[in-house]
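Q: Can someone sanity-check these two? First one:
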Amino acid sequence: MASTEAPRGLRAAAIIALIEGAALVAYGLYVLVQVARLGITGPAPVSSVQSVTLEIIIFLFLGAGLLVAGWGLWRVRRWGRAPAVLGQLLGLIVGVPLVGAVGSVERIAGIAVVIMSIGALVCLFLPSTTRALVEE
């Protein structure tokens, strides 16, 4: 199937994965820049070189993975669905506890992540999406 013939659900899932991936990469780069500018700040138990390095690596790799998955979905490639589903499940694991957070910013972020993850999962398992990926 040519990429111009992709069903709307598949396009929507690809766009969501691309947005999430870009946001994760942007946050990883933001943390990197902040550490370079200000140094490592915050409570001692979570503010070590190792923990900040791991945080940056996790955000950059998860973001890059979602960008690749979104690109694969946009091009109607079957291999893009599995990493996209994994990314959405991780989004739910992170987003659901944030919905019950005390701070309003955290709560809004959690709601946004949950809505995007559920929307992407629904789109990824629509019959039209499955047909398009099987016919690839």
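And here is the second, same format, sequence then tokens:
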Amino acid sequence: MIFTFQMPTAENIILFKIVYQGQVTEIRTYPNQYYSLMTLISDQLAIPGFGLCSGMGSCGSCLVQISNGYHQGTKNVLACAVSVNDELAGAVVTVPKQF
């Protein structure tokens, strides 16, 4: 898979929030700036023990909950399997307290 980085413009900014240990971090990023949500979280929050398999999807240490203003409820996903794109806009990503 080839990823291309788009030059940042006001039109392609992706805004969402990450909640970890009760603290809310507002994220401002761009499509394809990060390979996955796991790499973004690792870069922005540096949580010890998060993403131990480096995105191979084999350890489950990057499990997060994603809730979006457009959908009722939340879904549990591996952050290494989530692309950083417009689908994250307005979402709230919660990292469980196990980390």
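A (reply): Looked at the second one. The helical segments are 37-45. The CA atoms of residues 17 and 92 lie 5 Å apart.
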